[in-house]
Amino acid sequence: MATETHEATTHSAATDGAAAATTHDAGHAAADAAHGAADAGPGMPQLDFSTFGNQIFWLLVTLVVIYIILSRFALPRIAAVLAERQGTITNDIAAAEDLKAKAVEAEAAYNQALADARVEASNIVAAAKADIQAELDQAIAKADTEIAAKSAEGEKAIAEIRATATAAVKTVSKDVAKELITSMGATADAKTVTAAVTARMKG
Questions:
Q1: What is the largest CA-CA distance in the chain?
Q2: Cα–Cα distance, 187 to 132 (Å, whole number)
Q3: Which residues contact 51 (CB under 8 A, 6 or more apart)?
Q4: Four-CA torsion 198, 199, 200, 203, nearest 10 degrees
Q5: What is the block-wise mean pLDDT of the chain (203 residues), using blocks of 10 residues?
């Protein structure tokens, strides 16, 4: 009985040692695998030549998808925006040209109106000057006529006054001469006295 117990104990110890050795070997294998994975891990997948074909295929697929998306959605919108902007620019340029042409026409019309106004003003000034000169000439002629008439009337009045004065002086002179002759005791001949006075007054 004791022998069987000792054999069982020995067998159990051997079994436990074998299991421990197996576990130790498995741990070493796992560690080696981990080290191998760590050694192979740092490389970039894009530079793995074994996957180049797959990478190129998916690159082409991606480019085709991007092209389809751009050609179906983005590019038409961009083209529409560019066309609209080009149309706006064209319309703005046309409007600017139209405004420029209208400005040129307005400037020409202004210059023409200014020239016409200057000519009209010159004509008005010339006409007014001619009218004023005509009125002035008419007034001067009328004044000359009135002055001539007044001068004639004045000369006539002066002549009448002179004639009246001469007659009065002649009469007074004859009377004085007769009185002097009579006072000296002589006979005064009226004809002789008149002739003497007339000759004296004539000088």
A1: 245
A2: 74
A3: 45
A4: 120
A5: 45 47 50 46 64 88 93 87 93 93 94 94 92 92 90 87 81 76 72 73 66
Q: What's phi and psi for 184, nearest 5 deg? A: -90, 5
End-to-end CA distance of the chain: give it in Å, rounded: 223
Any idea what DSSP says for residue 46?
A: G
**Count of C-beta atoms within a 10 Å radius of residue 197:** 20
Q: How far apart are CA 36 and CA 40, in angstroms?
A: 6
Q: Residue 62 and residue 57: Cα distance in Å, rounded? A: 9
Q: What is the DSSP letter of 200?
A: H
CB-based contact 170:196 (threshold 8 Å): no
What pTM did the predictor assign?
A: 0.36
Contact 196, 180 (CB under 8 A): no
Q: The tokens 């000369």 sit on which residue?
A: 155
Q: What is the pLDDT of residue 106?
A: 94
| Dihedral (Cα; 60, 66, 71, 77), 10-degree rounding | -160
What's the CA gap between 20 and 18, in Å, rounded?
5
Q: Tokens 């436990």 identify what position?
A: 16
